[in-house]
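WARN no homologs supplied; continuing
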Amino acid sequence: MRARWHTRVNLLVLAWLAAAAVVAIAHRWVPVAEWLMVHLLMLGAVSTAILIWSAHFAEAVRRRPLPGGHRGQAVRLAGHTLGATSVMAGLVTGLWVLVLVGGTLVAGVATWHAATLVVQGRAARGGLGVRLGWTARYFVASSLVLPVGVTAGVLLARTDLGGSVEARTYVAHTALMLLGWVGLTVLGALVTLWPTMLRVQLVPGAERSGKVGLGVLLGGLAVVVVGAAVGLLVLAAGGFAVYLVGIVVVGRPLAAEARRRVPDTFASRSVGLAVLWFAGSTLWWGGSLLAAPGWAEAQAAMRAVIVPLVVGFAAQVLLGALSHLGPMIMGGSPAGVRAARAVVERGAGARLVITNAGLVLFVLPAPSVVRVLVSMLVLAALVAGPVLLVRSGVLARRARRGAPVTGALA
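OK structure emitted
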C-alpha cells in the first residue's frame, strides 16, 4: 500500500520535472521562460516533493500517521497542483487574478499542512520511540514561511510595482521561498536522512545542533525580511550571515557523519554537493547585498545566484533524495531494492561531474556560446535522473509482483 501510494504521488514530481525540462529546451519560444523554468522546478517539483516527503518523515520520526491519512494528503497535493498551475498560467497570460487565486490556494494548502503536523505532534507527545520527533518542527516552520513568501510573490506579479519596492519585495520573496520553504525543510530532513544514507548512527550532539540550528536559521531569515521591509541593505545582508551560521550549526554533525563513512552513492554525493552549493550561495547572496550600492543592484545580484541555488542546491538535493528514498520505499524486497538502486547509480560519477563542473563554468564569466553549451550538458545530466528513477520504479513493481529482476538490469 505504501509503495503504491508513493509511486502514484511521486509521478506528480516527475511530471513537473518533465515540464521544466521541456521549457528549458524550448525556452526561446516560451513566454517568460526563465521565470517559468524556475517555478516549474521550485513551486512545482520541489514543493510537491516537500509536501509528500515531509509528511513521510514526520510519520517516521513520530511513529504516528498524519490526521486524515493519505486521503487528506491527496487533497492537499491536488490543491497545491491546481494552485501552482494557476500561478504559472497567470504569469504566462498576464492575468494577475490567476496568480492571486493560485497563490492563495498554495498558501492555504501549506497552512493546512502545517496545522496537520502540529496536531500530529501533540498526539505523539509522551509516546514511545519519538526521540527525533522534534525534527518535524522544521517542516512546520517551513510550511508557515511559505504563505508569507507566496504573498510577496503575488505582489511581485503586479505590474504597478517598481523601484526599490519591487527590489525589496524580490529579495524578501526569494529568501523566504529558497531559504525558508526549501532550505528549512531540507536541513530538517537531513538530520535523520543523512546518517541513514551513509549507514551510520547520529553523532553525539546532533540533536542539540539541530534544535539550536532551527532557531538560528529562523532568526536569520527574519532579519533578512525585516531588512527588506525597512529598506536597510546592511541589515538584510546581516540576516544572510546569521542564516549561514545556522547552516554551519546544523551541518557540523552532517560533516562528522560523512567523516565516519565517506558518501559512496549517487544519492549521498548529490545531497552532499547540494548542501555545499546551498552554503556557498547563501554566502554569495549575503556578500552581494552587502556590496550593493542600492536595492536595484541587490536585486540584480540576487538573480545571478538563482541558478546555483535552484540547480546546484534544489535540483540536486531533490534527485539525490529521490534516488535514495524511491528504491527503498518501492523495492518490495531486498533484491528489488538492490536492483532499483543499481539502476539509479548508472553513470553516477559522470552525471555528478557534468552537473557540478558545468555549474561552476556557468557562473564564471564566459562567452554566451560556452554558457549555452554548458547549460545543455547540465540539463542532460539532470534529466537522466528522472529517467533512471522511472526505470527503477518499473523494476520495483516487477519485484513486488514476484517477477525476476536481475535480467532487467542488462
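The chain has a mean pLDDT of 90.
OK
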